[in-house]
Structure formats: structure tokens, C-alpha cells
Design brief:
Chain lengths: ~450, ~500
């Protein structure tokens, strides 16, 4: 698994390097392709249609043609299109970086002035955004999709960036409905011990339910999108059966510790995890003083009843800010940067997020296809066993082996399946032996 | 328990009667355009493409008719122009067809007619409105693919985007899209329907971010569809309009431990509360949603300095007379009583039912409007507006619905009152063919066609791709069988 990830790391490091070299080696006057993930490819546009553009870039002494689908392209500038882009042109991932934002959210929670992303790094705060999960496309389960090893690989990409391009802030853009608790501790430890010592680490919540909320918990700074929920962390399995006994005790203890890491009152997480009548718990209430400081109460005595003892807590964005869990509401990267106090900012390391996107895409494809391929293997073996001739029998075995190779390739690209679906090398090896045993002798 | 509203039987009947795929208007009364006595006589325009359009000819040139077209029953008339070359025949109608239509007050529609006529004078300055009906089921008829196509049509029609793809500042107020909502998400799913509107929400959010003014006009919005309009800061209700949720989250699921059920309820509330926050209803929206979704959440409100303050618990006893209660906790004596026929859908006050008057009083509805003129007035464009597109863009959704319907006629496996699809029938009848290869080939061919259709409409029929994967396995099996049969011959 780790070998596979290392290979992917290298691949992405090469891609990243190519992109950077392309940037550095470009002549002053050149065509430019701005990609939606924030990269700028400079060179000569050699082919173009309504659906793609091919730009020839210089990498060292070599020229290389890079073809991009228009769906990946934010804009195209041509040398002949008048002057080159102004220096202040943003290089952030948002394809429309300079536009004013029209977000219907409470203005008191939004930064009054939004900084603009810049393409020049001088003086600008460098921020990397890494998406964790994608609920819209069903690629959001903590464990298989939000996977500590994969995030570690993204982190490695950031670590290997040249010093002047390394982020100062890493924003984890969380969009998940929860998942496997077994991944929680690796994720929490990754954030606490591998990310926070190197980077100011921020959780930006699109949706953080259950294990996803707990994944965000070590971050000392949380920012909500306007319609984001965070909470509902009750552990369960099977047919809505609660986690109980020592396992729950360990989990509660772990999250108390993580609350301490994230500088949050542990009562908040407790109210997200358990409630009466299944578990003894008091009402959760709070006072807010004139400076906005929040005092939490393990009982109903506070000015605000935040969560009754019979309810499980999920904060909406307004309440998350009101009760100090989140530092504000932001729907764009510019707004995030403003809330983090950056007057000017630049997005760096989009390759780290590319890795996550590709990881999720591969996994989604694998989830659907692995079962199909497995059944096709079974069919081929059935026909092999009923074959009339040796040639036919071996052809079927060959077919089965081909399907098995496809399965192996898929799992190599989606290493979390080794753990979460038990698609281990040993299992594949055993299957291969079993298939080969069907060969005619 | 206090007041109860037993309109549930009617509601159920309407929902049951509404065809799943149809975007045709429902049968009950709604504001609509009708011709008055002082307007030109009704005619039927028989178009060269086969359509027959009821209309009033307002003026005519050598090449064109300018008409007030009654394109859809229950829909406001639209002033538009047809080339004479596209009109095969103009038939006079004996009786004024619009008069026989529905029951909306004529005075309103006369206003509309006059407005449409007068608009021509200052057409250049007129605000442009695209008014489209959303009937049927959200997530099915009204789903991401046709919605994206609709907004492409909107952009083309308004022609108001700058080079970045944003709406130019000059037209952010006067180019308006109005969704007339008489819709629901999957009824049996209750508020779980909100999970089927997330993609739609994102599309609408993107449009609003680019500066597109999107307005909801609610006649009825049920379940997930009840929270969707709340993402817009501009909601209007018809006078009989309402928003409601058909299932009490407090009765979530069957079985399971209480704490896990609480979690499920909590996360649903968290998602649902995000919609009114998105629309800017931060002071009352989350409280409204909680009370709509779950019976133990009461709803009380009062106004202080014109501002609505809402809570989900009873107010302090010494202040209770200043508060208005709209829903109770549904416990004990407060529990709504079902009638003898407990199949009736009964709205009581265990949960909040948001009718037009309440929505307006709580500041969710900007106004109660029954005509296009009304809503245009409240949108700040007065009477100087022009309705764009013949059908408000509804054809995009109707075409999609028709496509889905056609697809289902091919691929439905049968059951739930729907006959077995043609391709499955072909699959079933393959055994009648002579020769095993022909039989297997027909079956494989049928399944491949089914997979092709499933892929085309995957967002509706097989979003996770599981059915396609299963059919692919069957196809593989048939492929092998065909090879074997060929080898044996």
C-alpha cells in the first residue's frame, strides 16, 4: 500500500515539477492557459477546438505538448490578444477570482473586505487547500475516501515544494457525511502531529457529519460555509445499533483528548456523541459575554440552551460561530483568507489537492468495477470448467487472469481498499493461484 | 392540542393524481391569465410544426403576428411574435377559450393583458422575467441535467453575461428568473428528500453567485422541496400557498437505538437548517425548519421593533402573552388526533405548517402574490416587465420528463403499477426465436440497450452505477454462452 502511494507521490511530484518548470522557463511573451485548479501554463498554443486546447511548453531543453480539456480551463490568453496579463492577475483555483462575491449570508459573520489572491508570492500569504471528501459525488466516506495515508501523500507533495512555494496555511476543506471510526485516530494524529507543527492548519467545513466532524476537531481554527452542518458524532453500526461499553469509553476518552488538541471544550463533542436515555448526560448550555467569550456549562444554568440532554448536537453555521466553535463563515477562498487575517494571499500546491481528487475518482470507479470484475472471473471459471477443449479452457483461464489483473491495477490506485475491502496482495495472489489451477494440464 | 387543519385528504388526492413525469399544471385553481371582454378575440394559431396555440392577435404586419399567447393552461399569457411563415392557419374561436378555462379572477388577468400590451411602448427599458413552473417531483422531473440546460437557455435569452460569465451589474436586478413551485420531493421519503436536492441547490447557488436573480413563488412545496426555496432571499407565496413536511422526524425509522436515531435526526436538521441560513433568514429560518421537521420542537414568535424573534421552547411564563404559538410539542394532550380514517394526511399543530399568511408574518415570504403583476410589483420592476420565452423555459423540463418517461417505457422491470418495459419484454420473448444463438443474441442485445439508456439517465435511474454493473455481468454471461454455442455449432 505504502509502495503504491510512494509511486503515486513520485508521479505527482513529476507532474508538479513539470508544471513549475513550465512556469519558470516561459518567455516573457507567450500564450497562457489558466487552469481551473490555479495553474498557469505558458507557451505556444498549437491546437485548439471547442473542447480542448493543446499548449506547447518548454521543460528544460525539451518542448512538451500538454492537452487540456476546456472543462479544466479557466481562461486562455494569447500573445496576439493584446498585452500580457497584469501582474496582479490571481492564480487561485477559483476560475473567477476577481469577481465580487454575492453570498446571502449574515454579514456580521463575513469579513468586510476580502483579500484578492495574487500570482506573485512576494508578501502574500501562501495557502494550500486540500479537499477531504466529496458528498455531491458520493466520494466522502471517512476511511476509504478520507484516508490518512492518502492525505499524508498530499502533505508530502506540499513538503517537497520549493521553500518559496511552501504553504504557510493548509486549509482542509471538509465535505463528508462520516464513515469508519477506525480511521479516526490516524487522521487525528496526522493533523495534530504531522500537519500542525509545520503548517497553520484550518478546517473549512462544507459538511462535517460524524467522523468528518471528529476529523476536523484537532484544528484550532474552523470556518463554516454558510449552509454547513457540523456534528452528529454518535458511533453506531449495523441496524442503527449504538457503540457501547469499553469501545465507547475509549472513543469518548480519545475525543476529550482531541478536544484539548483543538482547544475546544470537551462538553461540545460529548453532546455531539451521546445523549439520554442511552447514556447519562446533562443539558449543554452556555453564556456569552459582551466580548463574545463563551462559557460552557454541563447543565441548564447557562443563558443559552445549546443542546438538551436528550438530543444530539449538530451546529449550523450561525450557531457554530455564535458559540465560538467556528471563527466565521466563508463561501469562497477569498473569504477564507480574509477570516484568517491575510491581506494578500496566493494559492500554492494545487497538486496536493489534485492527488486527493484523483484518489477519490479512482476509488469510486474501483468500488463499482471490482464486484463486476469478480463476477466476470467467476463466469470465466465456470466456462473453463465446462470447456470441451483444452484451448477453450485455457482461453477462459486467460480471460479470468486478465480480469484479475484489472482488479489489481484498480486496488493499486485505490490503496484504502486493501484495508477497507480486504483487497490485499495475499488475497489476489491466492485468487491467481486458484485461477491458474483451472488451466488444462 | 389547539387548532387542526384537515385538508390532508385533498392534499393526498392531489399528490396521488399528479403524474410523476408531467410538468402539466395541477387541476386546482391558481392565478392565471384570462382574456377580458375588452381584449381582442381568441384565435387558434395552427403552426407549421403542428402546434396549436390559443392566442389573441394584438397586431400584425406583413410578415408577423404579435400575439398574447396562452401557451399553457394555468400559466400567465405571454406576449410574443410569430412569423407568418410559421403559421399555417388562423382559426377564430367561437367562444372565448380562456373564459372557459379556470376560476381565477378576471380583474387580475385584465391587468396582465393591459400590461403586456403597454409593455411594447418601453420594451427597451422593461425588466425581463422568465417564469417557469416546477411541478412533478424534484430530483426526477426537476433534476440537475435539465436545470443546467434551463440556465443555459436563461443566459442565452437574457444575453447578459460578462466575459467572466457573471451577470453584468446593470441587469442583476431586472433580469429575473422565477420558479413557480408546486412540487415535492419523493413523498414517502419525508425530509430525506433534501438529500435529493443537494445537486440542485449547488446549481442554483452557482447561478446566484454569478449574479442571477432567482426568485421562488410557492404554491406548494413539500418535503425537500419545502426547504429549497429558503435558499433564496426572495420568496413569494400565492394566497393558498404553503410549505410542509409530510413525516415527523420524531418518528424516524423503525428500530435502532435511541441515541443513534437522535444522531440521524440531528444531522438531517443540520442539513435542513442550512437552507434558510443560505437565504439570509438567520433569525427565524433554523427555528422554522426545526419546528416543521420535528414535533417536540415547538414554535413561538414575537416581534420586537418589527424584528421577528423565534424560539423552539415555550417562553418564560411571565412573558408568554407577548408570544404567538404556531406549533406545540405534540405530546400527551397536545398530540394531534387522527381522524377515523388515519390514512388521511393530517396537518395539525404538532409540527409547523407554513402557510402564506404565516410565511409573510414571519418574514419568509416577501409578499403574497396571485398574479405576475403582483410579483413584478414586489420585485421592484413595477408594471414595466416582459415575460421572456414562450413557456418560461418549461419545455426544457418537459422534454426531460418525456425522455425519462420514454426511457422507463423501455427499461422498467415492471411493478409498482408500471408495466414491464419494451426491452425487457424483448428479453423475455427471446425464447420464442429459433436457435439458441438468436435467443442469446436477442437477450444480450436487449440488455446492452438497457445499459445504454441507464447510462444516459444515470443521475436519475442508477446514480451509483450498481444496476449497470449487475447488467454488465449478465451481458458477460450471455457473451460467453454465445461463444460456447458458436463453438458447439
Amino acid at each position: 500500500m505504502r509502495n503504491a502511494l510512494s509511486r503515486m507521490n513520485r508521479l505527482f511530484a513529476i507532474v508538479a515539477t513539470l508544471a513549475l518548470v513550465a512556469l519558470a522557463a516561459t518567455p516573457a511573451l507567450a500564450d497562457k492557459v489558466h487552469t481551473k485548479d490555479g495553474r498557469v501554463l505558458e507557451g505556444e498554443i498549437v491546437r485548439e477546438s471547442s473542447s480542448f486546447v493543446t499548449i506547447r511548453v518548454k521543460v528544460g531543453d525539451e518542448e512538451k505538448d500538454i492537452t487540456l480539456f476546456m472543462s479544466e480551463v479557466a481562461s486562455v490568453e494569447r500573445t496576439a490578444d493584446e498585452a500580457p496579463a497584469p501582474k496582479t492577475e490571481p492564480a487561485k483555483a477559483d476560475p473567477k477570482p476577481a469577481k465580487p462575491q454575492a453570498v446571502a449570508a449574515p454579514s456580521n459573520n463575513k469579513p468586510a473586505e476580502q483579500p484578492k489572491a495574487r500570482s506573485s508570492s512576494a508578501g502574500a500569504t501562501k495557502i494550500a487547500f486540500i479537499t477531504l471528501g466529496d458528498t455531491k459525488n458520493g466520494k466522502d466516506m471517512v476511511g476509504p475516501y478520507v484516508y490518512a495515508d492518502a492525505i499524508r501523500s498530499s502533505l508530502k507533495i506540499l513538503d517537497e515544494l520549493p521553500e518559496d512555494q511552501k504553504p504557510e496555511i493548509v486549509v482542509l476543506w471538509v465535505d463528508s457525511g462520516g464513515g469508519a471510526l477506525v480511521e479516526l485516530e490516524p487522521l487525528n494524529r496526522l493533523v495534530q502531529y504531522e500537519m500542525k507543527p509545520k503548517y497553520r492548519t484550518v478546517a473549512w467545513i462544507r459538511s462535517a457529519i460524524s467522523a468528518a466532524a471528529m476529523t476536523s476537531w484537532p484544528c484550532e481554527e474552523i470556518i463554516m460555509m454558510t449552509n454547513a452542518p457540523i456534528g452528529a458524532c454518535t458511533a453506531w453500526s449495523g441496524n442503527l445499533q449504538k457503540m457501547d461499553g469499553p469501545a465507547l469509553g475509549e472513543l469518548l476518552k480519545h475525543m476529550r483528548e482531541v478536544s484539548r488538541w483543538g482547544k475546544k471544550d470537551p462538553l461540545i463533542m460529548q453532546a455531539m456523541q451521546v445523549c439520554e436515555p442511552d447514556f447519562p448526560r446533562n443539558d449543554l448550555s452556555a453564556d456569552i459575554d459582551e466580548h463574545g467569550n463563551v462559557t460552557w456549562y454541563d447543565g441548564p444554568e447557562g443563558q443559552y440552551m445549546v443542546c438538551k440532554k436528550t438530543d444530539i448536537l449538530t451546529f449550523n453555521s450561525i450557531d457554530a460561530v455564535k458559540f465560538g466553535l467556528a471563527k466565521g463563515i466563508a463561501d469562497t477562498k477569498d473569504e477564507v483568507a480574509a477570516l484568517l487575517g491575510c491581506k494578500e494571499w496566493i494559492e500554492v500546491g494545487p497538486e496536493a489537492n489534485d492527488f486527493q481528487v484523483r484518489f477519490r475518482d479512482n476509488l469510486k470507479l474501483s468500488e463499482t468495477k471490482l464486484g463486476e470484475l469478480l463476477q466476470k472471473i467467476n463466469i470465466a471459471l465456470q466456462f473453463a470448467q465446462g470447456a470441451q477443449t483444452e484451448q477453450e479452457r485455457n482461453a477462459q483461464v486467460g480471460r479470468a487472469l486478465n480480469y484479475l489483473r484489472q482488479m489489481r491495477a484498480m486496488v493499486r490506485k485505490s490503496p484504502s481498499l486493501e484495508f477497507y475491502e480486504q483487497w490485499t496482495k495475499e488475497r489476489f495472489d491466492a485468487m491467481e493461484e486458484q485461477i491458474k489451477a483451472n488451466r488444462a494440464r | 392540542m389547539s387548532k387542526r387543519w384537515l385538508f390532508g385528504g385533498l392534499m393526498l388526492a392531489l399528490v396521488a393524481a399528479a403524474p410523476i413525469f408531467s410538468l402539466a399544471p395541477a387541476a386546482h385553481a391558481r392565478p392565471e391569465m384570462r382574456a377580458g371582454d375588452d381584449t381582442p378575440k381568441m384565435v387558434e394559431l395552427v403552426m407549421t410544426d403542428g402546434r396549436v396555440i390559443k392566442a389573441q392577435i394584438l397586431s400584425e404586419t406583413a410578415t408577423e403576428y404579435r400575439v398574447l399567447a396562452f401557451l399553457m393552461e394555468g400559466f400567465p399569457a405571454v406576449e410574443t411574435t410569430y412569423r407568418k411563415s410559421a403559421v399555417q392557419e388562423v382559426r377564430a374561436l367561437e367562444a372565448d377559450a380562456a373564459d372557459s378555462a379556470d376560476t381565477a379572477p378576471a380583474t387580475k388577468t385584465n391587468d396582465d393583458a393591459k400590461k403586456n400590451t403597454s409593455n411594447a411602448k418601453d420594451a427597451d427599458k422593461a425588466a425581463q422575467i422568465i417564469l417557469t413552473r416546477v411541478d412533478g417531483e424534484i430530483g426526477f422531473d426537476f433534476s440537475p441535467t435539465p436545470l443546467r440546460k434551463f440556465f443555459t437557455l436563461v443566459d442565452e435569452t437574457f444575453n447578459d453575461l460578462d466575459e467572466r460569465g457573471d451577470v453584468v451589474t446593470d441587469h442583476r436586478k431586472d433580469h429575473i428568473v422565477i420558479f413557480y413551485f408546486n412540487t415535492q420531493t419523493y413523498e414517502a421519503g419525508g425530509i430525506d428528500g433534501l438529500f435529493s436536492i443537494m445537486d440542485i441547490k449547488e446549481i442554483l447557488q452557482d447561478e446566484m453567485k454569478k449574479g442571477r436573480r432567482i426568485v421562488f413563488w410557492v404554491e406548494r412545496a413539500v418535503n425537500g422541496a419545502a426547504v429549497l426555496p429558503m435558499m433564496s432571499p426572495e420568496i413569494f407565496f400565492t394566497d393558498n400557498g404553503d410549505m410542509l413536511v409530510t413525516k415527523d422526524l420524531d418518528k424516524f425509522g423503525q428500530g435502532g437505538d435511541d441515541v443513534v436515531i437522535e444522531k440521524q435526526i440531528s444531522l438531517r436538521l443540520g442539513h435542513a437548517e442550512g437552507f434558510p441560513i443560505l437565504g439570509g433568514y438567520t433569525d427565524v429560518g433554523p427555528q422554522i425548519v426545526r419546528a416543521m421537521l420535528r414535533s417536540p420542537y415547538e414554535f413561538w414568535y414575537k416581534k420586537v421593533g418589527g424584528k421577528v424573534i423565534a424560539i423552539n421552547d415555550p417562553p418564560p411564563p411571565d412573558d408568554i402573552e407577548n408570544w404567538i404559538q404556531l406549533s406545540d410539542d405534540g405530546k400527551g394532550e397536545n398530540q394531534d388526533k387522527l381522524g377515523e380514517d388515519d390514512n388521511l394526511f393530517v396537518i395539525g399543530n404538532d409540527r409547523l405548517w407554513l402557510d402564506a399568511a404565516r410565511a409573510y408574518d414571519l418574514g419568509i415570504a416577501k409578499a403574497i402574490c396571485n398574479t405576475t403583476d403582483d410579483i413584478a410589483f414586489h420585485l421592484g420592476v413595477g408594471r414595466n416587465y416582459k415575460l421572456m420565452l414562450e413557456d418560461g423555459g418549461a419545455e426544457v423540463f418537459q422534454r426531460w420528463s418525456r425522455e425519462l418517461d420514454r426511457a422507463l417505457r423501455q427499461i422498467s422491470q415492471g411493478g409498482n403499477g408500471r408495466p414491464r418495459g419494451e426491452l425487457w419484454k424483448q428479453f423475455d420473448k427471446a425464447g420464442e426465436l429459433n436457435g439458441i444463438q438468436a435467443q442469446l443474441g436477442r437477450r444480450k442485445n436487449s440488455l446492452e440497450k438497457i445499459v445504454g439508456i441507464l447510462r444516459k439517465y444515470q443521475e436519475v435511474f442508477d446514480p451509483e452505477g450498481q444496476t449497470i454493473a449487475q447488467l454488465n455481468v449478465q451481458i458477460e454471461l450471455l457473451r460467453q454462452q454465445i461463444m460456447q454455442a458458436n463453438a458447439q455449432n
